[in-house]
Structures are given as C-alpha cells and as structure tokens.
Amino acid sequence: MEAQGKAGVFGPAATKEKRAFGWRDKVGYLCGDLGNDLFFGFIMYYLMVYFTDSLYINPAAVGVLFLVARLWDAFADVTWGRFIDTRKTGKNGKFKPWIFRMSFPLVITGILLFTKIPGMSNGFYMAWAFVTYILWGTLYSTVNIPYGSMASVISNNPNDRTSLSSWRTLGSSIAFLLLGAVGPVVLFTNNEVNSSHFFMAAIVLAILALACYISCYKLSTERVVLQEQTEKTNLLKTLKGVSKNKPFLVLILAALVLLVVSMLQGAVTTYLFKAYFGNMDALSFIYTSQSVLAICAIPLVTPLAKKFGKKEMAGVSTIVGGLIYTALYFIPNVSLTTFIVISSIGFFGLCFFQTAIWAFVTDCIDYHELVTGLREDGSIYSIYSFIRKVGQAVAGGLGGFALSVIGYDATNKVQSASTLHGIYSLNTLVMGIGYMAVGAIILFLYPLNKKRTIKLTEDIVAKREA
C-alpha cells in the first residue's frame, strides 16, 4: 500500500529500481566507519601523548584543548545535521554525496594535525595544536553526521539495521586492531615518542581513510526515500519532540557516561604501559587482543539480541565488564600478564553494547517518528552525536586534568609512586565504576525491551500505511 504524502513518512515506490539490501551495503557501511576510525582511533589512542611528549604541551592545557574542541564539535554536529535534513535527495542519495565531498579536506587536516615544524616556540606549538585539532573535529562532523544518518535509509528493516550496526562495529574494530597492533611499535622509539613517525603514519592513514570513504560511497545504496516534509520544522520543535522520546533520552545519558569512560580509558592507557609497566610492546599486545575480542563479539550480538533483546544483552554484559575492571583494582601486585588477561575479559563484556549501540539509535529515530510524525534522521543523529562530543569533551578534559593532578611530568624519566598509583587507579577502579553505571542505566531505565521494540516496528509500519 502506498504511503500518503505526509511529513515524515515514506513516499510511494520508495525502493523502486533499487537493488535489494545485501553484502555490498554491509561492506560499504563497514568501510565508512573504518575510514572514520583510522583517524579517530589514532587520535583517541595517541594524540594526548603526542601533544605532551612531542610538543611538550602541559597536560592540563591539553585537557582544556580537548574540552573546548569537543564542545565546539558538538554544536557543529547539530548545525550540520540540521543542514543535511534540509537537503533534497539527489540521484546518489541524500547522505552519501556529503561523505565523498568532505572526506578530502578531512584527511588533509588530519595530516596537518600531526605535522611538527622544527624549532618553533612553545606558544606556536600550542596555537598549532588548537587550530588544527578544532578544524579537524569540525570537518569530521561533516563526514560522520551523514554517515551515521545513512543507516536508516539503507534499509527500513530492523534486522538489516542491526546487521549494519554490527558491520559498522567490525569496520571500527579493524581500524583499532591496526592502530593498536602497529601503532606502539611504529610510533615510539626506545619507549619515547618519535615525531617523524607520527607524521608518516598520518599520511598513510589519510590515504587509507580516503580509499575507505570512496568505497563507502560506491558500495552503499540509499534505497529508502522519504517524502519531503510539507511542514517546516525548527530546532526548538525537534527538541520538543526529543523531550517526549524517553528511549532516546535514556540512550544519550548512557552514551554520555560511556563516552566519558571509554575516551578517558583510551587517553590514559598509553601512560599505564609507558610509565607504570614500562613496556610499550605490551600496549600493542593488549590493543590487538581487545580488537580481536571486539571482532569475536560481533557475530554473537544479533543472535543474542534476537533471543534476549538488545536492552537486556547490553545492560547485563556492560555491568559484568565493569565488575571485572573494579575487581582488578583490588588485586594486589598485579603483574603485566595478569593485567592483560583480566582486563581483556572485562573489555569483552563491554563489546556487546558498543556493537549494538547504533541499532539503539535507529530504534530511537523510529520512536521519534512515532510520537511526532516527523522523520528527522539527520537532526536526531546529530543530537546523539552532540552528546557523544560532549562526552568526548569531558573525557578529554578529565584525562589531561587527571594526569596533571596525579603529578605526571613528561620530562621525568621515572614518575613518582603516587603518580603511578594514580595512573593505575584511572585504568581500573574509575573504569569499573563508570562501566557499571552505563549498564545500570540501560538495564533499569531504557524502556524498549525486546517485546516493546517489536511492537514499535509494527506501529511504525501501520502508521506509514495509514
């Protein structure tokens, strides 16, 4: 039955002359996040230590930079999401063209971010860090917002969307596997930052990322076409609709806490292996093992979600992961091997929510349409991305401030005992409490359990056909 020309519903013959959803879409969507995370992961893992140990910027100043940049990016996300929602769908889709157009300046800026001009003053390096990092983050929004929004128009089938979420996570895991396995070996010489190696790595990653974005553009198909909104909306009206969307409000709360904890972990883990354990080769090993575990979790997510529900699976597994990290703090005199084994088990518990989270987002977009009658994929995804950037801002600020508070000094060859204890606490107890909080939010506050998610899909279909 053809849908009527109402705001926020599917247009007639929306999938006419479009090939069926299949492997090309999955691989194409994988390539998109692989491209994203080649640089995002590079920055998450290594940018702070590059700033502190190569440019010799004070950790507290780096924290301020991360806080300011991510807050700026958060507003850039919403602005760009609103812009995307006002664009008409062209012959190549609504979202794909922007991924292709903006990927070129994005990767060029990524190279500039890791370019160190020799012999300049500390003030110059500080200014260079601020300008290039903020510019990179702004351009990242112009690619990531259309990429994330595109999932809802590749298919309107919930199982297809869960599959896309899994393939997206696989792309991310491949990027982090590459960065974790090779990064510590290539980027550091005698346990110290090698600036020229960072620059060469940025060039290689830029070329790979650009190839991934082009593959995403070529392989993915936007087959779900929406009727143009007959009713013009504004941000205030969208936010009013969001205020009625309890699943989305709970999800962004969980995502905010998750991003704060995981980004903080990404920032301080390098210091744990560099200063506490004094073994950067082991950092490569743990990053590799975590990426492999994330990949191993991917094929388990869809069957577990079908059997127990996404909410139930994600909530329980995240709490278990948090408990394991917390227990690690209380084990005395932990050896490097013991730390790697136990923390990897805890990390595995976290992989299920991180894999399924994008399917949660598409459910929330559907719920927004159900309660408001408006289909605002770009705006809703950009609001979600806004919250993620706030989480990244807080985490980046906390990482720098925490290192400063515990007394980390990059000019010291050996850190004090209290500093080393602080580094270890950040990587265990703080992580554990944070992840348990995320699991509890999902398990006890998120309203879309398995039964209600199935009912939501049925209600959306009925409303579109009415």
From TrEMBL:
The chain crosses the membrane at residues 27-48, 54-72, 98-117, 123-147, 167-186, 198-217, 248-273, 285-302, 314-332, 338-361, 390-408, 428-446. InterPro entries: MFS_2 (IPR039672), MFS_trans_sf (IPR036259), Na/Gal_symport (IPR001927). One of its GO terms (cellular component) is plasma membrane. Keywords: Membrane, Sugar transport, Transmembrane, Transmembrane helix, Transport. One of its GO terms (biological process) is sodium ion transport. GO terms for molecular function: symporter activity. NCBIfam families: gph (TIGR00792). This is Mfs/sugar transport protein. It comes from Trichococcus palustris. The lineage of its organism: Bacteria, Bacillati, Bacillota, Bacilli, Lactobacillales.
